[in-house]
Structures are given as structure tokens and as C-alpha cells.
Design brief:
CHP04076, alpha+beta, TIGR04076 family protein
């Protein structure tokens, strides 16, 4: 298993939907910032939003296990091998992530309990 680089590409706010449904003063995601990076493989990196992790972990897992050697799906989504562009599930202020296979082996940083 290899590590996957997670980069925050963009934090967004759908102003139209936020005006209709959002709480007063709603802004783009306050937890993450553009350009922020994380590395992951089997577990959520420290500091990454739990909800964002739930939305992207399956792509991280696939890239960590070699799915990045080719194009995702049928080559009709992302043109770069080893890359996925995903977002969190917040419909009013989604955060857009770039996931990249690194080829760097992951290391277990805990002792498994048996």
C-alpha cells in the first residue's frame, strides 16, 4: 500500500443555495484552506474533516492500492493516471480535493491489537 497525497484545491460556497437554505453568515468551509495538503493510506489524516474523509476515502484507498496506474473508470473522467478530483458532501459549501498516488510506501504508525 502506498501513501496518497490529498490537496485542497478549492473551498467553495454556492451563494444561491446558501441564501435559500444556509444559516445566516454561512461562509466557505472554515476547517480547510486552499493549498492545504495531507497524506493518507488506510486511515484519515489528522486535521482532515471527518465528513470529507467519508466522501473521499474510497478513492484514497483505491489509489493507495494501485488503481492510479491507469485511468479511473473508463478513461472518461480524469485524464491523468494516478489522480482523482473529488469533493466533500456539503451541498452548500463543498471542498474540492485532488488525490494523487505517490508511490511512497505507507508505514503502519500503530501497533495492531490481536
Amino acid at each position: 500500500m502506498n501513501r496518497v497525497k490529498i490537496t485542497v484545491l478549492k473551498t467553495t460556497l454556492d451563494k444561491e443555495l446558501a441564501a435559500e437554505y444556509g444559516a445566516d453568515g454561512l461562509t466557505a468551509c472554515p476547517m480547510l484552506r486552499e493549498g492545504q495538503t495531507f497524506y493518507a493510506d488506510y486511515a484519515k489524516p489528522e486535521g482532515l474533516c471527518d465528513e470529507a474523509w467519508k466522501a473521499i476515502y474510497q478513492y484514497v484507498f483505491a489509489l493507495a492500492h494501485g488503481a492510479g496506474e491507469g485511468l479511473f473508470y473508463y478513461g472518461d473522467w480524469i485524464k491523468q493516471p494516478g489522480v482523482a478530483i473529488c469533493s466533500c458532501n456539503d451541498g452548500l459549501r463543498p471542498v474540492i480535493f485532488k488525490l494523487e498516488a505517490t508511490g511512497e510506501p505507507s508505514e503502519i504508525d500503530y501497533t495492531p491489537i490481536r
